[in-house]
Design brief:
This protein is mainly α. It is built from 5 helices and 2 strands, in the order E-H-H-H-H-H-E. The chain has a domain of 109 residues. The chain is elongated and about 65 Å long. The N terminus is likely disordered.
């Protein structure tokens, strides 16, 4: 006998709270990489990258030397940076939420590489000052950001399932 009535199934839903915390944590890690590791490897100072990020909302006039501390520039850079970190983390969580920690980390690393490509090979049409910042160290920083975002999401995620009916 063939029963055609719908059978209940469960599907996992995204833990948006974990995604937000993952975005904040991985965004903070990315800032540490920008502030200390990138200048140590490539020379220069951390304010160059922060000014480039702030210029997205403040305009290219903030890029003029000297690249030193400015509270308005720092505030704008942090606002843009964390808005992007949270957005990217939410997108990544929607992609990896059904798998475990390993896929979160590896998938996140690939996602970070894709974010680098979009940021530095697409948005340079709108923000040409990022062209000069295409470096292997920033590629690595984006990969680490993605891996951290995916790993943190999976580590913080509270798995929750909802019942759905199949359309059999």
């Amino acid at each position: 006998m063939n029963d055609t009535s719908p059978t209940p199934h469960e599907r996992q839903i995204v833990d948006w709270s974990a995604a937000l915390w993952a975005g904040l944590g991985s965004g903070a890690l990315f800032l540490v990489l920008l502030a200390w590791i990138v200048p140590a490897v490539e020379g220069g100072n951390a304010w160059v990258m922060l000014r480039a990020v702030a210029a997205v909302v403040l305009g290219p006039q903030v890029l003029a030397p000297p690249a030193t501390y400015d509270p308005g520039v720092l505030g704008a850079a942090l606002l843009v940076h964390f808005a992007l970190s949270l957005t990217f983390s939410l997108v990544l969580a929607a992609i990896v939420h059904r798998w475990g920690l390993a896929v979160g980390i590896l998938g996140g690393a690939v996602f970070g590489l894709m974010v680098y490509g979009i940021n530095f090979y697409t948005f340079t049409a709108l923000f040409p000052w990022f062209f000069a910042l295409r470096t292997p160290t920033l590629v690595l920083a984006h990969v680490v950001f993605g891996a951290a975002a995916g790993g943190l999401y999976e580590a913080l995620e509270v798995e929750e399932f909802v019942e759905v009916e199949s359309a059999a």
